[in-house]
Amino acid sequence: SLCEKMREVFTGLYPLGDDSESAKNAMEIAIASPSKFVLKPQREGGGNNFYDEDVRTALTTMSQEELKAFILMQYIHAPEFDTSILRNKKVTKVSAVAELGMFGSYLSDGSSVLNNAQCGCMLRTKASNVKEAGVAVGFGCLDSVIFAD
Asked: CA–CA separation, 42 vs 39, rounded Å?
């Protein structure tokens, strides 16, 4: 189905810090296989993410209240490509990966949906050996999308 095809290119996101079954299941899987997940603070800007064994440590030591400030995301294994990045007036050739983020808006009055729309995208490119992707903190850079056959 179309829905299944779309799920193949999206990553799983799981809220934490509540007693929901989805949160409990995601935490169990992440504790067993921490390298398959990233623990991210729910804020923009990049940085302060937990990777690999730090995911397990954080999930097993943080309180439920502390976990509410984070989201658990499946780690993205994007294909690598060779490119050049301009930083500090210097061009550097690197092996890179890109992440396409889609923006949406949702507005409801509690009983009906007033707005639910896709409203933009952002493509970030970063060196493939860098885990963080925040553009604002210097880990990645903004890029342009080119569609080709």
From this structure: 10
7, two tokens: 């799920």
Structure pTM?
0.71
DSSP 113: E
Torsion of Cα atoms, 104 then 38 then 139 then 66, to 10°: 80
Average pLDDT over residues 99-118: 91
User: What's the burial of 72, exposed, middle or buried (CB within 10 Å: 0-12/13-18/19+)?
Assistant: buried
Nearest alpha-carbon partner for 121 in 97, 148, 144, 96: 144
Q: What is the pLDDT of residues 45-54, one digit of tens each?
A: 666 889 999 9
pLDDT tens per residue, range 63-80? 989 999 999 999 888 889
Contacts of 124 (CB under 8 A, 6+ apart): 98, 99, 101, 133, 135, 140, 141, 142, 143
Run of H or E residues at 73: strand 70-74
Q: Give the Cα separation of 94 and 85 in Å (integer).
A: 7
